[in-house]
Amino acid sequence: MMTVDTDTCAFLLRAATDQIAASLDRPSQTDDIASVIHWVRSRSAKAAADLRGQLATRYPDIGWTGEEDVPNDPNAAYWVYDPIDGAYHFLQGLPLWSSSLALVIGGRCVFGIVYDPTSNELFVAQEGQGVTLNGERVTTRNKTDLKGAVLGSAVPPIAQVGPEEHAEALRLLERVTGQVFVVRQMASASLQLAYVAAGRLDGYFEVGHDIPDWLAGALLVKEAAGVVTDLSGNGFGWSSDGLLAASPDIHAQLLKVAASAAHVPSA
């Protein structure tokens, strides 16, 4: 079994993220969206190249898969890194953005880190070893009543995903909102998943196929005694259509709500 030094990986991710957070050359408020996207991609590429080099020196047998890529060899060992999850928060000067790093072996995420530089919170999970937040064990909240659930979600920008996926997200949000206490779109996806693992949120759901954004956070939830599937209840993986992560009782109830939303005709 391939092993890595979790403390070293956490140190490297923290250093890379803190360097991004300290960037002084961020786009101005007058820059157009194309310029902003170019800056994010350029800054992310630099951070990825730096971290890839650091990890390759220490773990030469572990490959690398870019944030936007799907691995060619499902049996390989590789890193998946998202330098700026919640880029719009970061660029607007808001907190609650994060970086994540996942190690996938044989198609299964076995190690994941989510780091919030604003709050200096580091969430770490290893397969079969639970989850820690800044070194302290955490677990999902054992809530059973969906009506009292506090959930997280995200509605993607229509300019990014197109009208069809945007409408799907709104349909699901409408259905879920009517069945729970409240839904918050409060942070990056990986950080909201970390909040589920730590019991701060009771669940998280999202449409789409942003698997690289979800890998590390999904492992956090699983290792914190939660359940993670796609929106149809199938096992989470590279082919997943959407994401649903929650404590067991809440997850089972949310699956029924998601199924009802899937059968609502689009306007």
Keywords:
267 residues, alpha+beta, Fructose-1,6-Bisphosphatase, Chain A, domain 1, D-Maltodextrin-Binding Protein, domain 2, 2 domains, 5-stranded mixed β-sheet, 39% helix, globular
Description:
The protein has helices at residues 6-21, 33-58, 87-92, 158-161, 163-177, 189-197, 211-223, 248-262, and strands at 63-65, 77-85, 98-105, 108-116, 121-126, 131-133, 136-138, 150-153, 182-184, 203-206, 227-229, 243-246. It has 267 residues and is α+β, with helices and mostly antiparallel strands. It has two domains: 6-138, Fructose-1,6-Bisphosphatase, subunit A, domain 1 (Fructose-1,6-Bisphosphatase, Chain A, domain 1), CATH 3.30.540.10; 146-259, D-Maltodextrin-Binding Protein, domain 2 (3-Layer(aba) Sandwich). It has a seven-stranded mixed β-sheet, with helices on both faces. The longest helix has 26 residues, at 33-58.
SSE map:
Layout: H1 6-21, H2 33-58, E1 63-65, E2 77-85, H3 87-92, E3 98-105, E4 108-116, E5 121-126, E6 131-133, E7 136-138, E8 150-153, H4 158-161, H5 163-177, E9 182-184, H6 189-197, E10 203-206, H7 211-223, E11 227-229, E12 243-246, H8 248-262
Parallel strand pairs: 1-2, 8-9, 8-10
Antiparallel strand pairs: 2-3, 3-4, 4-5, 5-6, 6-7, 10-12, 11-12
Helix pairs in contact: 1-2, 5-8, 6-7
Would you list the SSEs in sequence order as H and E? Answer: HHEEHEEEEEEHHEHEHEEH
Percentage beta strand: 15-25%
CATH architecture of the largest domain: 2-Layer Sandwich
End-to-end Cα distance? 51 Å
Spell out the CATH superfamily of the largest domain.
Fructose-1,6-Bisphosphatase, subunit A, domain 1
Mean pLDDT: 91
Radius of gyration: 18 Å
